Amino acid sequence: MKKFLTVLPLFFATVSPSFAASDVGFDVNINVGNRSGVVIPAPPAVVVPAPRVVIEEPPLFIAPPRLGFYVGVDIPYDIFYISGRYYLWQDNYWYRAPSYGGPWTVVNHRNLPPGLRKHKLERIRYYRDDEYRVYSHEHDHYRGKHFKPGKEYKERYKEERKREKREYKHHGEEKGHGHGHDD
Fold first, then answer.
1. 70 assigned to some structural domain
2. Residue 3: which residues within 8 A CB-CB, separation 6 or more?
3. SS3 call for 82
4. 79 is a domain residue
5. Residue 47 resides in a domain
6. What residue spans carry the Basic and acidic residues bias annotation (predicted)?
7. Distance, CA of 46 to CA of 106 (rounded, Å)
């Protein structure tokens, strides 16, 4: 190694007059470690526009037992209701809002409620559609969980549940059966 280092200056001394006479350059750069002072620009911020959601009247939400949360039905949106908040999947983004009508803000997938995060959207749609067929067929006698946002619907829903509980207690039958008296 020492021999090489002593020969190297001699080589450059003998070769340099020929380099000086020509327009040929010779450069050696050796970098070890991190470059200091190099700033890598941050990627541009992605601005996600608020979704356009227009719902004329409060939508119906049903809770398929296999999901454990409410899903909006008979509307052109994938809207879900969990723990007092509404979630929307639209244009490859998740959104959250305090009301089914918004205002919607983007939410990261890892910040979704665990029940919503654990299911693939296709599976949620399958369970929703399957349960909605049951709801549509049984309509007035549907025993699953369902609601429509809005004060007037909530009051009617509460009254129906109270009536069903009284009938259940009075007749000793399963909830939802025995709407008449057999004397």
1. yes
2. none
3. strand
4. yes
5. no
6. 149-183
7. 11
**Cα separation, 64 vs 67, whole angstroms:** 6
Domain of 78? 60-171
**Residue 34 within a domain:** no
Residue 57 backbone dihedrals phi, psi, to 5 degrees: -140, 160
Which value, in Å, is the radius of gyration of the alpha carbons in the chain?
35
Q: Strand 70-73 and strand 85-90: pairing?
A: unpaired
Distance in angstroms (rounded) separating the CA atoms of residues 119 and 113: 11
Which structure tokens are listed for 120?
């693939």
Please tell me the total number of residues recorded for the chain in this structure: 183
Walk along the chain (183 residues) and give the pLDDT tens digit of each residue: 555 445 445 555 555 555 445 566 656 666 666 666 666 777 776 667 777 788 888 999 999 999 999 999 999 999 999 999 999 999 999 999 999 988 999 999 999 999 899 999 999 999 999 999 999 998 788 888 888 998 545 555 566 667 667 766 766 555 454 444 443
Decide: pTM greater than 0.85.
no
Domains in the chain, number: 1
Q: How far is CA 158 from its chain centroid? A: 31
Check if the beta carbon of residue 97 is closer than 8 Å to that of residue 103. Answer: yes
